[in-house]
Amino acid sequence: MSGYTFKAGFNDNYDGWQEVIAQIMSVPSYRTFFQVTTLHAPVVVKNDPACAPSNDRNQCHLNCKIAEENGIGKHVSGWYLMCEYIFEEIPAGMCRLVHHSNILLPNGTLINPTYDPCSHHIFFRDDRRAFSFRDGIGYNDRMVLGDEFLKGQKTREPVPRNKVLYSANEYYDRDLRFEKFRMYETKEEAYAQVPQSLSEEDKIKWLTLKTNASVR
Fold it and tell me: Which residue in 149, 167, 152, 156 sits closest to 212, CA to CA?
């Protein structure tokens, strides 16, 4: 993932990424979070931008669509994991899933055609949620804040345990959390769902978190 630094001691090879899977699955709150996200277990996927005609960094869904059209394999949707065991910039207790696409090769191997400075990544396949090219709609990031998040630091309010948060366009706000996400057909339908008790500023945040999805 561009813009992040590997945590000291982390090995950017297949075995190093497998070790992270063991670490995250040993955390009860993370494990439960994954189970309510998808029925599939996490797997290590090789990043290989040379395997397909298109590898633009911010166009993973389109890259895989083009790869499928070229007969390379099947376009598969799911979630790209980012957590404290991989990157220095992510604090303890924070786990983030980014909606992502990979290619399932004829031999059953998953591969990532999208450019990534890492050698591999951890992927949770999710057949229930795919980017809609017809409507231009994808899914926002999923984030869980565990018991260790910002432990020992002063915060404006206690951080709820095992909360799910959705972010849009690389943005999230710990003071505004929503556990459920829904794709609205029209802006008018979304506006009608905005809690009237929110301030005008928070209404804008609500609409951003509820209706804008980052495409990766």
Answer: 167
Residues 158-215: tens digit of each pLDDT: 444 444 444 443 334 433 333 334 556 677 777 787 888 888 888 877 776 665 433 2
Q: What is the CA radius of gyration of the chain?
A: 18
Q: Say how many C-beta atoms besides its own lie within 10 A of residue 89's C-beta.
A: 13
3-state helix, strand, coil in the chain (%, to 5): 25, 25, 50
- Secondary structure E strands in 66-134: 74-83, 94-104, 110-112, 120-125
Token duo for residue 12: 């950017």
- Over residues 18-59, the pLDDT tens digits come to 999 999 999 887 888 888 788 899 999 999 999 999 999 889
Specify the residue for token string 């396949």.
125
196 vs 193: CA distance, rounded Å:
9
User: Helix 14-25 vs helix 28-37: angle between axes, to the nearest 10 degrees?
Assistant: 100
With CA atoms as reference, report the closest residue to 84 among 32, 38, 146: 146
- For the chain, give the longest Cα–Cα distance: 54
State the burial class of residue 5 (Cβ atoms within 10 Å of its Cβ: 0-12, 13-18, 19+).
Answer: exposed
Residues facing residue 96 across a β-bridge: 82, 143
Reported pTM:
0.72
Nearest to 13 by CA among 123, 122, 119: 119
Asked if residue 97 lies in contact with residue 83, where contact means CB atoms within 8 angstroms, the answer is no
Structure tokens belonging to residue 30: 């993370």
